[in-house]
C-alpha cells in the first residue's frame, strides 16, 4: 500500500518542474533504449539488490534474531515471558518484512530525489514545491513509524519492533544508497564528456538523419559553397525529372535546370 501511495505522488508531482531558464548546449536523449538510460536502470537495480541482500544477511547475524519469537527483540535481556501471554504473530510479522519495509520505502524516496533533480533541462528539485513537500512528508512519516515504538501502530501495519541500533543501521544503509546513486547519476550516467570519449573509443556513429547529413557535408570538398550562386530546383513529379522549374525566375538558371534533369 505504501508503494502505491508513493508512486501516485511521484506520478502527479514529478513533472511539475518548469523548464530551465537557459538552453542546454546539448539535447536530451531522443530514445528510451539508449545505453546511458539502460545502464542507469541496471545500476539502480544492482544497488537495490546489494542493499537488500546486505540487510538480509546482516539481519540474520544479530543476537536477537529469531524466526519464531518476533516480539522479544525490544525486551530487556533479563525479561522473563514465562507468566506473560504473547499473541501468535501473523505470517507477515517478522524481522525480514519489517526491515525491507523501511529499506524499500526510503529507496523509493531516494529514486525520487535522484531522478527529479531537474538540471540541465529543467529547474532544480527545490523549485518544485509540491514534490519537495511530499518528499519531506514521506521522510517524516517513515522516520516516525521507525522510531515511534507504538505497538498499536506496528500491529496495524504488521510490523515488529527491532532494537534501536538496528534502525540506525537501516538509515546508514539508505544514506549510503543515496550517496552512491547520486554520484553514479551525476558523475557517470550524465557525464557527457565521458560518453563522448566512449563513443570515440568505439568509433560509434549516430544513425540520426541530421548526423548522417552532417557527415556527408563534412566529406564534401565543395561545402560550404564559396564564390558561386546556387538555385533551388523544384520538380513537380519525382517520376518525371524533366518537369523541373527554377524557384528564382528572374535569373533563369538554365544550366541548373539541365543539371537537375540529368
TrEMBL record:
GO terms for molecular function: ATP binding; ATPase-coupled monoatomic cation transmembrane transporter activity; metal ion binding; P-type transmembrane transporter activity; polyamine transmembrane transporter activity. It is found in: Membrane. GO terms for biological process: intracellular calcium ion homeostasis. The keyword Transferase does not apply. It comes from the Eukaryota. One of its GO terms (cellular component) is late endosome membrane. Keywords: ATP-binding, Magnesium, Membrane, Metal-binding, Nucleotide-binding, Translocase, Transmembrane, Transmembrane helix. The chain crosses the membrane at residues 37-59, 129-148, 168-189. It is a multi-pass membrane protein. This is Uncharacterized protein. It comes from Engystomops pustulosus (Tungara frog).
